[in-house]
Design brief:
The protein is of the alpha/beta class. It has helices at about 10-20, 40-45, 50-60, 90-95, 100, 110-115, 130-135, 155-170, 195-205, and strands at about 1-5, 25-30, 50, 60-65, 85, 120-125, 145-150, 170-175. It has an 8-stranded mixed sheet with strand order 3-2-1-4-5-6-7-8, with helices on both faces. Bound molecules: NADP nicotinamide-adenine-dinucleotide phosphate. NADP nicotinamide-adenine-dinucleotide phosphate (NAP) binds next to helix 1. It holds the Pfam family F420_oxidored.
């Protein structure tokens, strides 16, 4: 599969490495353009770089991994019809306050899906730290294989992403549609905690809509 990645930071680069190792083609992009990505090119063998628009066009699936406050800067028409993997998290101190999120009325991925209204948005890769992505990937069946939560409204896109997770080293737990994805947003029990499938299911079930855990989570 061709995977375009918008955002060449910690998460974008980690997913790129794993996807390349699994045999996929990957194009990374950032906000400044490919001329600013020579270290990315030399650091990740086999990766391609391009503008954000080129990465969007390149990808059959596209990973959105930019600071959440910038999600509206990605033109929706670039991603029409595509599966968009949304790794973003809302940090009010970084992104500015978004009242509907502060009031727990919607989810970060629902906002992204409302912006990318012709795309199939799948929330994934938000609930694992970037260094853990490369450190915790395991072959299928490994006893210590970690599970990651996935949410989407489109069943086929969700299945495609679950298959990708399996290829790159992770089990998956289907956490429902985008409106349920608050269960693994920031400050919930499943957020960035290494868990196997059963542990992750329990953590998702234990999440409370209006309860945010302390920052150490
Ligand atoms: N870091 C983690 O462990 C982690 C884990 C899970 C989820 N996340 C979430 O994933 C997202 C990205 O986090 P990160 O830590 O990878 O961020 P980061 O290291 O700060 O990198 C952000 C990247 O996004 C690019 N970017 C910003 N605006 C853009 C735009 N409009 N078009 C194209 N590229 C743009 C930046 O490019 P320039 O440098 O050229 O501006 C940079 O390459 C955040 O929402 C974060 O909360 C992070």
């Amino acid at each position: 599969m061709k995977i375009g990645i918008i955002g060449a930071g910690f998460i974008g680069r980690a997913v790129a490495q794993l996807a390349l190792a699994a045999g996929h083609e990957v194009m990374l992009s950032n906000s400044r353009g490919p001329q600013s990505m020579s270290s990315v090119l030399s650091g990740i063998r086999g990766v391609q770089v391009g503008t954000a628009q080129e990465a969007a066009q390149f990808g059959e699936s596209v990973l959105l991994a930019i600071p959440f406050e910038h999600y509206r800067s990605v033109p929706a028409q670039w991603l029409e019809g595509k599966t968009v993997m949304d790794a973003n998290n809302y940090y009010p101190n970084r992104d500015g306050h978004i009242p509907v999120l502060d009031r727990f009325e919607t989810t970060t991925s629902r906002l992204v899906a409302e912006h990318l209204s012709q795309s199939k948005v799948v929330k994934v890769f938000n609930a694992i730290l970037a260094p853990d992505l490369t450190q915790d990937a395991r072959t299928r069946g490994a006893p210590d294989r970690r599970a990651l939560p996935v949410a989407a409204d489109d069943p086929a896109a969700k299945a495609q992403v679950i298959a990708l997770l399996d290829e790159i080293g992770f089990d998956a737990v289907d956490a429902g549609g985008l409106d349920e994805s608050w269960r693994f947003e920031r400050a919930k029990p499943a957020y960035c905690i290494p868990l196997d499938k059963e542990g992750l299911k329990a953590a998702l079930a234990a999440a409370e809509r209006q309860v945010e855990l302390p920052a150490r989570w």
